[in-house]
Amino acid sequence: MRAYRLGLIGYPIQHSLSPWIHEQFLKRNGLTGSYELYEVAPESDFAQEVEKLKAMELDGWNITVPYKEKILPYLDEIDVSAKQIGAVNTVVRKNGRYIGYNTDGTGYVRSLLHHHPRLKENKSVEVLLLGAGGAAKGIYHALLASGFSNLTVANRTTEKATAIVNESTEVATLSEVEASLNQFRLIIQTTNVGMKPDINNTVISLKQLQPDAVVSDIVYQPLETKLLLEAKKAGAYTHYGHTMLLYQAQYAFEIWTGHLTDTTNMDTKLQAILEG
Ligand code: ATR
Fold first, then answer.
1. Which atom of ligand 1 is closest in space to residue 191's alpha carbon?
2. 194 and 130 in contact (C-beta within 8 Å)?
3. Cα-flanking dihedrals φ and ψ of residue 70, to 5°?
4. Nearest Cα residue to 219 out of 110, 158, 131
5. Whole-number average pLDDT of the chain
6. What is the pLDDT of residues 82-114, one digit of tens each?
7. What's the pLDDT band for 50 if we cut at 50, 70, 90?
8. 106 with 246: CB under 8 angstroms?
9. How far is CA 238 from the centre of its chain?
């Protein structure tokens, strides 16, 4: 049986959870292999480091900060998922060619639908996406691809929201959506607001939130942001940001090996690891 050789490139990556996740995935699929960390220091010659990595002929790499954009010119092909965002987090070596993907958006949607399966039958719900940065872009395209059709994007800088959407999507200001929040059944928070050390802030007020809505926050430091806490208090459903880590990895592993891994019990274990 072949042994998969997988790894992560980034800096700093010593505390990455990816080795744990992918070693679990290998085990769960009865596969052999390893997932190693290849820390590339910012002062190093990146082109040379990529050449060294290519010479090792790994089957698959993950790419993280600060190299998600920098890797683009070294790849032979860029999948649409990565083109849409302009950043790669997964590379697969196929017949000696290197193909770049971005699994963030699809991973996010998989996680959302896993935790809120009711949404699978309700893709025409009004969805509010808060933020228009890199993370929002990936999630926006993955939502459309999975069939969600009624999307509104609200951002502090509305021009940025306009720049990432197509004509079927509404663009609004944060204060507009705050006032009309009761029209949305799925609210996805992708900005940095609420992230450590900014833990006492929320990007919008949830005063008008409907209790049957799902509120999702991609911030996972802290695991429970103020926004999620307020959503819970209002009786709404919540979706936690750390759960997307698992599904981004699940999709990357599928690209490398063709195996779609069952993630049962991994969410709780991941949460325990993140909580230290
Ligand atoms: P990421 O890759 O994590 O999405 P990013 O591309 O820097 O990061 O995007 C950050 C997002 O958070 C943007 O939507 C940003 O709004 P602007 O486009 O107006 O800058 C949003 N954001 C960051 N700080 C914010 C704040 N204090 N209030 C509202 N939005 C904020």
1. 12
2. no
3. -60, -25
4. 131
5. 97
6. 999 999 999 999 999 999 999 999 999 999 999
7. very high
8. no
9. 17
Cβ pair 118, 239 in contact under 8 A: no
- Give kind and range of the element (H or E) at residue 254: helix 243-257
- Give the residue carrying structure tokens 């999620």: 228
Distance CA 169, CA 165 (A): 6
In DSSP notation, 116-182 reads -GGGGG-TTSEEEEE--SHHHHHHHHHHHHTT--EEEEE-SSHHHHHHH--TTSEEE-HHHHHHTGG
Query: Annotated catalytic residue: which of 27, 52, 68, 233?
Result: 68
| Catalytic-residue membership of 68 | yes
Q: Which residues line ligand 1 at a C-beta cut-off of 6 Å? A: 131-136, 155-157, 160, 190-193, 203
Q: What is the pTM of this model?
A: 0.96
Substitution candidate for ligand 1 out of 158, 164, 192 with most atoms within 8 A of CB: 192
The pLDDT of residue 43: 97
* 60 vs 10: CA distance, rounded Å: 14
Amino acid at 106: T
Residue with tokens 């059709």: 149
C-alpha 60: how far from its chain's center? 18
Q: How many CB atoms lie within 10 A of CB 126?
A: 18
